[in-house]
């Protein structure tokens, strides 16, 4: 038989910050996100939950790496991100993961922030050649086949 926990009345928080609402459940608010979290999310004497600790550690590691690898000072990545309106400098897309710092492999000049698709595939395939990208744009805007053969359409199977 399953036990149903009754909600803890407002203001009924016992000493020590833990709220008990059943035989096993003990929760307390995180000092950073203010969510009531189960005690397993906290270090023995910790005030911040594991999720918030991980986010803080990830942000610090990212800033340290950006400083070491690309020479961007504290807050410069965030300033560049804000200047780009939080978007990829090429496609303008907004992604869940952080944007990559793009740099020229010959001069090591930091150029901007790009999504992984543009940085890892588009520029890699073009070998960082502006002329190759201009040629690709010309091809997409004015493909040769319709001029030479007339309009022909793909006859393959339709995808659901």
Report on this model:
The protein is α+β, with helices and mostly antiparallel strands and 160 residues long. The chain is 36% helix and 11% strand. It contains five helices and five strands. The radius of gyration is 26 Å and the shape is elongated. It starts with 18 loop residues before the first strand and ends in an 11-residue tail after the last helix.
Structural class: alpha+beta
Number of strands: 5
State the helical fraction. 25-40%
- Largest sheet, strands/sense/barrel: 3 strands, antiparallel
Which runs of at least 5 residues are low in confidence (pLDDT < 50)? Answer: none
Mean of pLDDT: 85
Order of SSEs: EEEHHEEHHH
Strand content: 5-15%
Number of helical segments with 4 or more residues: 5
CA radius of gyration: 26 Å
Adjacency order of strands in the biggest sheet: 1-2-3
Overall outline: elongated
